[in-house]
UniProtKB/TrEMBL annotation:
Signal sequence residues: 1-24
InterPro entries, A to Z: Chemokine_IL8-like_dom, Chemokine_XCL1/XCL2, Interleukin_8-like_sf
Encoding gene per record: LOC111939662
Cellular-component GO terms for this entry: extracellular space
Keywords for this protein: Cytokine, Signal
Molecular function in Gene Ontology: chemokine activity
UniProt-recorded name of the protein: Lymphotactin-like
Amino acid sequence: MKLHTAAILLLFWLAIFTVHTVKGSVSSAPMQKFSCVTLSNKQRNVQNLVSYEKKQVPTDAIMFITAGGIKICVSANQKWVETAMKIIDGRRAAKRK
């Protein structure tokens, strides 16, 4: 009877350990929810852009996020995109001070 109880407790603890380990590894992994499949050709007003993310899959692009939360992908090698990124970085630096 003692051996049977010990085996059940061992299985119980192994199950808890396994669930805890799997849950921790899945929740700690960063997940990309959005990728740039299509790119916009239209130049955007920098005043409406609040942040950006660099994307490399499936193509090199910049994903701008507007004040309204809209995500717009544009080609990374355009001059206005580089300027907009510098302006957004400047705003971020000013807020941190």
